């Protein structure tokens, strides 16, 4: 409980007392009436603090007590996210990923899903070598900040449907004071991207072929 908030409540109530010596004890900091008011308004301060906490709990990224409600809202756990026993940070990431997985076919959409889960990835797309577009004798790759595209000699047309996600390292969930559970959550939890594989398999374009590759230590 916030002592400053408690004292502010007491001062407001004490200032509303009628004038006169009989009520002075409520206004004096060391008066008996003041102590009485402090005990009474403690409940109001608790309600005030809990209402503030409710605003935070409505946000999945900051929820603790209502995290299970957010999981139920988005249909967790499911076949991709078995959240039971996971640290709070991983459970929050799963909820946020489900909320943000609205669908898309751009590379940025899929790398964004991976980032929400806590993975750093790079996306590689492939296509056949094309005269007038691909470079002869030079670099055979192009792309942008979201993905790299490789032009492959001798590739068939269906190569356009093949893409690869490079997982640049495991997800590490560190123990955080005030969030993690002492005696339950480890100091660091290192996770293989099985949840990401499942999620990408669910949302990848139906005509495409996806390959996962793991890099880093």
Class computed from helices, strands and strand pairing: alpha/beta
Largest sheet: 5 strands, mixed
Average pLDDT taken over every residue: 81
**Count of individual beta strands:** 7
Q: Roughly what fraction of the amino acids lie in strands?
A: 15-25%
Q: What distance lies between the first and last C-alpha atoms, to the nearest angstrom? A: 45 Å
Quickly describe the structure:
The chain is 39% helix and 17% strand. It is α/β, with parallel strands linked by helices and 217 residues long. The strands form two sheets. Strands 2-3-1-4-7 form a five-stranded mixed sheet, covered by helices on one side. A two-stranded antiparallel ribbon has the order 5-6.
């Amino acid at each position: 409980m916030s002592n400053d908030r408690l004292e502010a409540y007491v001062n407001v109530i004490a200032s509303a007392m009628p004038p006169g010596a009989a009520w002075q004890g409520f206004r004096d900091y060391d008066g008996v009436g003041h102590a009485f008011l402090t005990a009474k308004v403690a409940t109001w301060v608790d309600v005030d603090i809990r209402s503030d906490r409710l605003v935070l709990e409505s946000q999945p990224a900051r929820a603790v007590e209502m995290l299970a409600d957010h999981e139920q809202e988005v249909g967790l756990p499911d076949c991709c996210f078995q959240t039971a026993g996971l640290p709070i940070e991983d459970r929050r990431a799963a909820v946020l990923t489900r909320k943000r997985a609205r669908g898309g076919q751009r590379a940025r959409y899929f790398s964004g899903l991976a980032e929400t889960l806590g993975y750093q990835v790079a996306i590689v797309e492939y296509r056949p070598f094309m005269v007038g577009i691909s470079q002869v004798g030079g670099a055979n790759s192009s792309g942008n900040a979201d993905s790299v595209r490789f032009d492959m000699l001798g590739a068939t047309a269906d190569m356009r449907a093949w893409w690869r996600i490079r997982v640049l390292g495991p997800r590490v969930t560190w123990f955080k004071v005030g969030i993690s559970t002492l005696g339950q959550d480890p100091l660091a939890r290192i996770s293989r991207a099985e949840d990401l594989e499942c999620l990408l398999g669910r949302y990848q374009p139906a005509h495409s072929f996806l390959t996962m590759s793991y890099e880093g230590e």
